[in-house]
Amino acid sequence: MSQQTLMELIKEDQPLFYPVIPFDAQKDKLIQLDFTEANRQLTGDILDDTALFCEYIDAQLLRYQARYGIGGYAEHRTIYSRSRLFDGQPGEEPRRIHLGIDIWGKAGTPVAAPLDGIVHSFARNDLPGDYGATIILRHSLNDIFFHTLYGHLSALSVSHLREGDSISKGTTFAWFGAPAENGQWPPHLHFQVIKDMQGYKGDYPGVCKYAEKEKYLQNCPDPDGILQLNRFAKQYL
Prior knowledge:
nine-stranded mixed sheet, single chain, Glucose Permease (Domain IIA), 16% helix, alpha+beta
């Protein structure tokens, strides 16, 4: 299956997808957040302190009266220096290329299935900097299978699941987690599209090395094809 084939199917079905998060384009504001080295406001001191990082995100949303911040697909991010999880072995190239889209908002924000699916797997990835509670759904469009990954969720989100459970389109099945349960990040949803899970369960890399960028982006096409939110995002920073 080529990326083009999957993306064409997703584009054809865009009017049918249910919103993953509550968002009313008529009244809600969405801002684009930059986590590359171009963002000089985001200092090492902020990144090293989860409380300060939360305050930074909250301040950006408040400043622009935005309900959410969004961004990150294929972005080369400096923020991953906050966790050794992304650094690998000594002398190895660190992972810094983001493979999903992040939606930053309030803990407890509901997450809904954009189309019918089944629970492929779920886990508590609780190392500092990891996904925290994570759910992966398996979907089919015209008999082509792919997956959506939801990271940084609340512990409640995975407390009631079993692999193989059916999740109907539009069903709220998860919620944004607080830092204590989402890998020590400001509350947000990491949303990623994955064609081939490559044997992973309850987890899949959401960040890759620059040297492996093309390989991973081929397997993880732009999730905004499903979210359809970037068109509403305002860039202030």
